[in-house]
Amino acid sequence: MKSIQLNIQDALYFAEKQYEANGAAAVEAITKLDKGTGAGADFIGWVNLPNEIDATLINKINATAERLREACDYVVCIGIGGSYLGAKAVITALSDSFADYYAPAPKSPKVLYAGQNIGEEYLGELQKLLEGKKFGIIVISKSGTTTEPAIAFRILKDMLEKQAGKDAAKDLIVAITDEKKGALRTMANEEGYETYVIPDNVGGRFSVLTPVGLLPIAVAGHDIAKLVAGAVEMAKATAHPGPDNIAEVYARMRNALYESGKKIELLVNYNPKLHYFAEWWKQLYGESEGKENKGIFPAAVDNTTDLHSMGQWIQEGERTIFETVISVNKPAISVRVPENAANLDGINYLAGKNVDEVNKMAELGTKIAHVEGGVPNMRIELEKLDEFVLGGLIYFFEKACGISGYILGVNPFNQPGVEAYKKNMFALLNKPGYEAESAAIQAKLK
Ligand code: PA5
Predict the structure, then answer these.
(1) Assessment of whether the complete model's pTM goes beyond 0.85
(2) Do residues 217 and 198 lie in contact, with contact meaning Cβ atoms separated by under 8 Å?
(3) In angstroms, what is the span from residue 13 Cα to ligand 1's centroid?
(4) How many structural domains compose the chain?
C-alpha cells in the first residue's frame, strides 16, 4: 500500500540472525490466520472483515449517525478497552486539536466517552456538562456484562430519561453488543433500542472496523467508507507471505528484537493527534501477547514532548528497548516560523521554514542519536492522516499482531489474565455468586 511504508533498516542489524531464523514461523503464522488452523481461530473474523463490510451496513451506520447528529449536541460513547479505544484513536487522529473548545456546531455533536474508568469525579463532571443539554448514548459492550460501562450506562440512561422522557430517550440510545447474549442485549431488546451486533468471531481489541468503531467515527463526522477502503487495500497487501508484506516484516522484526533481549517496544509519534492511536495499539499488543510469562511490553511516547521527559531514559537507560516510529509525511496545515528583526530568541535560522521541517529534523536527529545509543528503530511512514490511511494502518497493526503472537507461540486472541482483577473486585463488592471468593479475600486482608 503506497500510502504506508515500513523501513526496518535501522533495526535489522541489531538482530539479523534472529530475523532470518523466524521467516518460516512467520509464513506458518500467515497460513494459520488464512486457514483458521491456529490457536484462538474462533476469533479471527477480523482477518476478512474489511471485505465483508458492504454498502448496506455502511449506509445503515451512516443513517444512525445522521439521526444522532441531528438530535444531539453531545453523544456519549460508553465502553472500555476494545469497545472504545479504536473509535477514540481514529476520532482524535482526524479531529481538530482544539475541537473541544469550540461550541458544538449544528449537526456536529461532540463525542464524549464514559465507562472507560470508574472515576466518580469524571462521571459527576460529565453529568454536570450534560445537564439540560441534548445528548445521546452509544453503549458498547461485547459481553454486555462489563462493570465499568454498566455503571456509566445506568447513571447516564437514568439522567437522559429524566431529561428527555423515557420515550424520547429510547430513540437517543443505540446499543452495540452480542447478537443474543448478555445483560445489554436483554436490556436493548426490552427497551426497544436500535442495536448493532458485534460479530461472534471478532474480539474487542480487533473490533474497530465493526459498528463498535464505525458508528462513533461516523457520528464524529468522518468518512467510514474511506476508512474501510483503506483496510481493504491493506488486507490485500498483507494477504500472502513475502518480503513486501509489511505486516509480516514488522512482526518478524519485533520478535527478532525480542529474542535479542529488547523486551520493550516504544511506539513513537511526532504528531499529538496520534496519542490515542498509541493507546489503541498498546491494548492490541498488550492483551494479545502478554501471556505465559512472555511478550514485548508495549509502551508509547509522544515526541517531541516526551523527549523532554523520557528522552534521557531512552538514550541512556537499560538497553532493553526498541522504537517503532509513526511519521506523517504531509501536515494538512502550513505554519511557518516568521522572520524577526531583533532575533532576541535566536531562532532566525529557522525563519521561513515550516514547523514540520523542524519536527522532521527533530525526528531524524533523535533516530540517529537513539540508534547510536543502542535503540533499534523501525519507521512507519504515512503519506498523510486521513480515513483511508488510518484504515490501512489499523489493519496493518491487527494483521501484524496476529502473525507476531503466533511467532511468539501464544494464543493472541484470548485474555485470560484480565479476569483476575475482576474476580477480586467482585469478591470485595460482595457480588452475588462470589460468596466463597469474598470470604477468601476478606481472610487475606485481616
Ligand atoms: O479486547 C478485549 O476483548 C477487551 O479489551 C474488551 O474489549 C474489554 O474488556 C471490554 O469488553 P466488553 O466489550 O465485553 O465490555
Answers:
(1) yes
(2) no
(3) 38
(4) 2
